[in-house]
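so my prof wants the structure for this chain in the tokens format not the other one, which i didnt know existed until like an hour ago. anyway here's the sequence
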Amino acid sequence: MSPKRFEVQVKDVRNGSVFLSRLQREHVKISSLYVSGSAMFFETDTKGIKVIRRYRRKYRVKVQIRRRGMDTVQHRLFASLLFLIVCFIPLVASLFLWNITVESDIPEIAQRMETKMQKAQITAPSLLSKLPEEDEIRRLLMQDEPSLSWIRFSKTGTSLTVSPMLAPLSTEVEEEVKEKPSHLVAKTGGVITRFALTRGERASIIHQTVKKGDMLATGILEQGEKTTVVGADGEVFADYWLECHFELPRTISYSIQGEENLHISWQKPWIGNQMKNIGFRNPIIMDRTKENHIQEVFLKKGMEETIILPLIKYDLLSKKTNERIIKEENILHVSFTNDKVSGTILFLLNENIAEKRPITQGD
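here's what i got, hopefully its the right format
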């Protein structure tokens, strides 16, 4: 590193010459000496500044000291560039997703959600613009999760919070009974999208349109002239349209998971002082506090898409314990009276449509 240089101005030239002789006896480094009018100018180093301040009152000279290079174009350019970099770092950081949190009281569900997001490359840090749509993420996370009825997303700044919602637990106790061998038939019409059989043989194909009662999988296997009854078991998923009629009170109460208060502070984006050990971290520190409470809302026109439709979708998903996905929805009719709201919504669902039908002697 180059030594610090200072420019010294001595205003009284007559006393200045005596003062300058004293500096020379003290072995002070002096360079670029010149006289302009009644003032004398020269350059020195840090050691020379200490000597000048020690003797300036004794020789009664007026001295002005200025750091060399503070007003140069290079210094101002460097200061401006440093300011732009400091402003640019938070701007760039705001374009990335830095934190993904899964809020669940069941650690196993939270672990499965995090694993699924990692496989789908939904991780932090990543560009916010490259994140999939919420419906696509929800469909991915709810696959093979019959205990979930819905997944809520909360995106605040550069953080994403994933909140899985459990389906209501069934209070019915099922007794173990030995089932008779059965076929799998369609309990409703639809277009087959996927098979998940554990026993039996397919009696239909993917993308085939079936009606209620059509054979989906047979429990009778034929190998040459030999016939074996093994029964069919598993799931067959299909798309089908469901017309849902609903009736709600005009004033409804609902519990929200909690309002969050967010306090944002700033920290250095790098860790460590040595270049070999330097690392990077989230430059934004966010501190959240949450309060749970119950709210009431009065339903009125204009809330069909924002309030009524999400309520019906949640109710529709919470009634099923097996896997069900809503692909599309279409509001056909909504009417408002003094105390009630009623209407009809058309849903495109994907779920298991297979049910068992015992194998009879006629089969």
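also thought this was worth mentioning. The first strand starts at residue 6 and ends at 10.
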